[in-house]
Amino acid sequence: MAVFKLQSLKPRPISGLSMKAGSIRSYVSSCRAVLLPRFGRPEVLELRTDVPVPDLKPNEVLVRARAVSINPLDTRMRSGYGRSIFQPLLPLILGRDVSGEVAAVGASVRSLTVGQEVFGALHPTAVRGTYTDYAILSEDELSPKPASVTHVEASAIPFAALTAWRALKSTARITEGQRLLVIGGGGAVGFSAIQIAVASGCLVTTTCGNQSIDRIMAAGAEQAVDYTSEDIESVIKGKFDAVLDTIGLPETERIGTNLLNRGGHYMTLQGEAAALSDRYGLPIGLPVATAVLFKKRIQYKSSHGIEYSWIYMRADSEGLHEIRRLSEAGKLNIPVEKTFPITQVREAHEAKDKKVILGKIVLELD
């Protein structure tokens, strides 16, 4: 049975909590969660009511989830992406983003208290994800929820925005006045990058579908190019200090690297580490991926004078708090197109697989 010591003496009432004078302990030993017992189509997902809740480590926080968003990583993992890592660890709980309330905290947690509304995201290789009534995240993976947004709206933000933050702030280190090109600005990561860059005083150009142009221009981009009807290379003028390629095809890589100033940064979300590990197994795949990345870095440094990086989301407490401030100021949001109850998780995944819903989908937990 999982037993957690809680810090607050007057938390918001949460099902499964037992209160005693002077201290509060949680006796949440199991809860609902969506399990992935094997890889496959949406029908492999199983909503179970008795999934164990592990004991908290000192730096961990138990979050009563209210909303969790579906990311492309979720549907790819369900289909078998990363199987070299995750196959031995099945069954998994999918999900990275979460918004909810703190239900319990580990012994060393100081910045968050029971009952506080929070949002955050797990790292990409987490095994116990957020498609559950009670999610567990480390303290540095959470921040107070932006007060101006709902749980549904908040849950759409962290994973995508932190991925963009890592690219722009940690890797390219963009500064005011620089030019940024986002290839694929209509998706959650691309749209987050546009807003973060605009808030940093950068000049942003992006490619996107026609349906995203108005939203992107309203967010402050200088130019939005409809890749379905315009020739990108002839329409986009000048060079850029950084390129974030959310598509990651050979053609977009060619375009992006050719549009960079010397000393600029090309960053792609489509790194090959997981794919190569799936193909060859971890013992061979990871060294091969390292060699591929090193070769590309040397090649582009020599031929174009640019930096080349694969971008993955990582926990960044400072970045998440800045993302919260931008959201509260109305400078960063990710539109949610549709919500589903957690009981309809299969239908939600199917809608993403069939591209019935192109925008962000959020799962709600009552």
Automatic annotation (TrEMBL):
This is Enoyl reductase (ER) domain-containing protein. It comes from Hibiscus sabdariffa. Residues 40-363 form the Enoyl reductase (ER) domain. SUPFAM superfamilies: GroES-like (SSF50129), NAD(P)-binding Rossmann-fold domains (SSF51735). Pfam families: ADH_N (PF08240), ADH_zinc_N_2 (PF13602). It comes from the Eukaryota.
